[in-house]
Amino acid sequence: MFICRAPQSKNLREDSNHNMYVSGCTEVEVKSTEEAFEVFWKGQKKRRIANTTLNRESSRSHSVFIIKLAQAPLDADGDNVLQAKDQTTVSQLSLVDLAGSERTTRTRAEGSRLREAGNINQSLMTLRTCIEVLRENQMYGTNKMVPYRDSKLTHLFKNYFDGEGKVRMIVCVNPKADDYEETLLVMRFAEMTQEVEVARPIDRPICGFTPGRRYRNQAFKEELTRKLELRGGPIDGDPTFTELFLQSFAPLPSVEITDASDEHTLPRLIECLEQRQRARHLATEEVKKSVNALRGMLQDWDNNFSVKENYIQDQTEKMVEKDRIINGQKSEADRLEKKIRTLEYKIEILQKNSKYL
């Protein structure tokens, strides 16, 4: 007896760099295009498809194939990859195959097929709504909240629409006359997306960060530099730490040898260089400890900032929802007030008529 388990829904999570990812998915490391295609086809086999009236192999879900390209330096021998985060650059390419919208009156979907069609149409409608809000903010200078969280599809690629990446869309249409209305809607949607221009920050040579954090990291560096300048910290033209460190050493002894039997000059020089080497080693260890402590502080600050930002986002969404409820209640109150005035007017007319009777 074989038990077929239904696919489990995956949740979205946000990492410390504010990049969205699918929790519970396994990343497979590949080293060639053949291995990448093997993983791709393995995923295609698990894609949900079903037979409908209009399509023998109708996609019942969207498909996302993400490729991450990591670039890291090699060691001096060129044999091993250096595991240094500050020298590693990660780029991401996401290929998304959207399932087509469906009209149940034509597909005659029932049961689970009907629920799947509803989920597909709802996510596509959310995508359209996000594009419309982005277009409205761009054209009229408004600052409306884009409802990325209404769908996992738009929430996953939020950073792309916010400008930390490039988005390209290919629209497929059916030339059949029966699909004229669907084709017209799709073409109008494609025309609307062409009018959306998302401001994209200038790429800077910052290693170790995925696109979703480059702008924020650069802004933090600029703010840190500004505060250091206000506090009298190092600015352009001041001696560097290395120069100050070298100045703290005692001057080197004279290395001039005037006598062939001189046995003191070289030993004094060697002893002085060994002292400098030991002091340099101790200073390096202290600097490493300070750097690690600073990294820990920055990581804690970043995590706290992420938690606060998520909290503010949730509170903002709740406020928007409450505003919608208040506006709805206000409209209902206005409607009831108009109805009351109408009834009062009718009562007044009835009272006048009753006097004449």
Summarize the structure.
The protein is mainly α. It has helices spanning 33-45, 104-107, 112-140, 152-156, 158-161, 180-193, 214-230, 241-247, 265-356; strands spanning 12-14, 20-22, 49-50, 58-59, 63-71, 89-97.
3D architecture notes:
It is a single chain. The protein contains 9 helices and 6 strands. It has about 350 residues and is mostly helical. The strands form 3 sheets. It has a two-stranded antiparallel ribbon with strand order 1-2. The protein is elongated. Mean pLDDT is about 75; it is low at about 205-215.
Order of helices and strands: EEHEEEEHHHHHHHH
Query: What oligomeric assembly is this protein in?
Result: single chain
CA(first)-CA(last) distance: 87 Å
What's the pLDDT, averaged over the residues?
76
SS class: mainly alpha
Main β-sheet description: 2 strands, antiparallel
Shape: elongated
Count helical runs. 9
**Low-confidence parts lasting 5 or more residues at pLDDT below 50?**
203-213
Strand content: 5-15%
Strand arrangement, largest sheet?
1-2
Determine Rg (CA atoms, Å): 33 Å
Throw out a few tags for this protein.
two-stranded antiparallel ribbon, 357 residues
Tell me the layout of helices and strands.
Elements: E1 12-14, E2 20-22, H1 33-45, E3 49-50, E4 58-59, E5 63-71, E6 89-97, H2 104-107, H3 112-140, H4 152-156, H5 158-161, H6 180-193, H7 214-230, H8 241-247, H9 265-356
Antiparallel strand pairs: 1-2, 3-4, 5-6
